[in-house]
Amino acid sequence: FKNKEEIVLSAIVSHADYFADLLQEVYEKRESIKENLFEELWKCYRAFYEKDPVTFSAWQYLHQREMVTNLSQGFRDILYEVGSRVVGLQHKIVGYGVTEQIFIQCDPRTLAEVIWSMFLGIVYTERSKHRLSHKNHMTVTMDTAGQVLSQGVLNPSRKKAGDGKTACRADHVMQNEVEPVKI
């Protein structure tokens, strides 16, 4: 390595490749895990984080707008390449879930971003709480979040057919023309 940037880049690329391999494995076995697709995707996220939390944080930190603009063009290009592979696989997995009606019917790219953002929010919130209070609730929070995302936040006894709540339809969302559909 010639400098610190190359050392960090090497670690991030290796870690992102690990994540992409996990996601590729889920995508390849999507038919056989269809009923547990969300759970398997969530396990990938957790494994990616738990393998090396420091590199995970560095990867996320370097993807922030303020940081990206201060990186060399070569570094940005490499981050874009490895990030694109990961995001593309997330979109393919969630797209399959939407197409197969495993997931709610909406733009799969948006849904993939929502799931990933929920995961990131939990990681950063729990890490901050741990630093401030020295309490660690990461595992229980991750477990609960996975359950909530897979089941929804409403108590099943509170859900009513045709109660006026709406969901988005993928064919309209793709064109930015959201037309509510009764569920």
Summarize the structure.
It contains 8 helices and 2 strands, in the order H-H-H-H-H-H-H-E-H-E.
Question: In terms of topology, how is this protein built?
Answer:
Layout: H1 4-28, H2 37-51, H3 53-62, H4 65-68, H5 73-99, H6 108-133, H7 138-151, E1 166-167, H8 170-173, E2 181-182
Antiparallel strand pairs: 1-2
> How much helix is in the residues?
55-70%
Number of helices: 8
Strand content: under 5%
Distance between the termini: 56 Å
Alpha-beta content class = mainly alpha
**Large-scale geometry:** globular
Lateral strand order in the biggest sheet: 1-2
Mean pLDDT: 81
Low-confidence stretches: 162-183
SSE order, one letter for each helix or strand: HHHHHHHEHE
Main sheet attributes: strand count, strand direction, barrel closure: 2 strands, antiparallel
Q: What's the Cα radius of gyration?
A: 18 Å
Structure, explained:
Helix content is 68%, strand content 2%. By secondary structure, it is mainly alpha-helical. The chain has a two-stranded antiparallel sheet. Helix 1 packs parallel to helix 5 (73-99) and helix 2 packs across helix 3. It is globular. The N and C termini lie far apart (56 Å).
Key features of this structure:
single chain, 183 residues, mainly alpha, two-stranded antiparallel ribbon, globular, disordered C terminus
